[in-house]
Amino acid sequence: MFVFPDNLSEALEKLKLASTDSATDSVESCLDCLLKALANNNTEASVKIQEMGVLPLLPTLLNPQSSCTPKVANIIAEVAKNEFMRSPCVEAGLIPPLVQLLNSTDQEVLLQTGRALGNICYDSQSSKEQFASTNIAEELVRLFQKQTEHEKKEMIFEVLAPLAENDVIKLQLVEAGLVECLLDVVAQTVDGEREEDIAQLKTASDLMVLLLLGDESMQKLFEGGKGSVFQRVLSWIPSHNHQLQLAGALAIANFARNDGNCIHMVDTGIVQKLLELLDRHVEEGNVTVQHAALSALRNLAIPVVNKSKMLSAGVADVVLKFLQSEMPPVQFKLLGTLRMLIDTQAEAADQLGTNGKLVERLVEWCEAKDHAGVMGESNRLLSALIRHSKSKEVVRTVIQGGGVKHLVTMATSEHMIMQNEALVALGLIAALDLVAAEKDFVGANLVSVLHKLLSDERSAPEIKYNSMILICSVMGSEPLHKEVQSLEFIDVVSKLRAHENKTVSHQASLTEQRLTAQS
User: 271: which residues sit within 8 A by CB, 6+ positions away?
Assistant: First the structure.
């Protein structure tokens, strides 16, 4: 039951008068009344405070010398628990005076100011942008360097974490020296047994990874791979502490966001460290560490020059140890890593594509209806094994494993890139071993799928082109040839002779000749 709307209004009116002549006693009693109302029903009281225009009065009350200051900051913290109050707090000009209060020596002022700043910038884009134009990054880092107590550090961390989501502030924090503070916290707490050590280690290493999500801040800390920060983070990977292993692997994945960094890291032997880490987690599998290490390897495998180096370092063999994993996030990254590794690498694609166990698992995951990501990646890897090996043996392994029907389904995906990958793989299957694939092609209704793709106005030119190539390839099979004839393909194909894309119209003429000759 919300008791005192009347004396809340009264208190708000009094506060308006009192704040102008700064009579401390009357202000104090008004603030107490506000805090009471907020404790009783935060949302209603906040609406009232907003309606009565009290927020713009608060900056003048946030005076470092005043005894009211902790209460004012507490009121702001309470009000900013409501999402609808965060922008009004920013607009009322509360951020600069709150940031100044971070210099206070009064513990209660610091505590309430930290809460207020943390709540205002929680989940709010506009307030983070306002913070970027203050010197809050420097103030917070300076304050952090002075703290010895765990609670104080935690309070600053709570303000830092939401702020660091903004890329401009990330860079400001890096320039203000936050990273060195975080590395010190890690060094001090890594062997700690106490709850608070474990909590601080997690917060500091998580925040470190968050700073690396910004392109500029990441590149600044990488310093061409010579940076001391980069070197320190590398040393986390062989650590015995799971939290540090995780942060180290995530940091590498974040440093590996451009080709230059990836090439440098592979040349300096990071792959070996990540493989050793993964090996330690095959048995005592920590899923988050597995996921992070695989993410790092996947990113490192993107530049073409890295692929063969990583393959000869044995990356594929270590990754395959996780084929048995039942965890979708791990399955997803495992598939992505293998797909990146075999891109343009015929020998590796051949080796993996003739690995019956792998193909069997891929076919199983192609049916993982609950996990669209895993399903999509399995299909893409199945197709990639065929496209990059162009090998009859691989095609046979996929046919025997029951993969053909999944590639036909993939050709109907809503993602053009996946459709195309599927059609190219199906074209290779038809060219390399039509006899063995015939039964599966018939069973999966390949011909009617191709008819749909060619008749659909929305199909991209490359889809139309590859569908026609495939039609020509399957004509050598009697049952498929019959289906082509019964579906009147000639009508659809002759229309495509007028297609605006030259490659498509040319292929349509060739396909039409082929269909006519064999009708």
Answer: 297, 300, 309, 310, 313, 315
Nearest C-alpha neighbor of 246 from the set 277, 223, 220: 277
In contact, 185 and 148? CB cutoff 8 Å: no
Which position has the token pair 């899923």? 287
Spell out the SS3 assignment of 37-75: HHHHCHHHHHHHHHHCCCHHHHHHHCCCCCCCHHHHHHH
Radius of gyration in angstroms for the set of CA atoms belonging to the chain, rounded to a whole number: 32
pLDDT digits (tens, 9 = 90+) for 201-250: 999 999 999 999 999 999 999 988 888 889 999 999 999 999 999 999 99
Residue that has been written with the tokens 């193909």 in this structure: 359
Length of the chain: 519
Given this model, what pLDDT does residue 281 score? Answer: 94
Burial of 341 (0-12, 13-18, 19+ CB in 10 A): buried
Amino acid at 379: N
Following DSSP, what letter does each residue of 273-286 receive, concatenated? Answer: HHHHHHHHHHHS--
- The domains found in the chain, sorted by start residue, are 1-176 (1.25.10.10), 445-518 (no CATH)
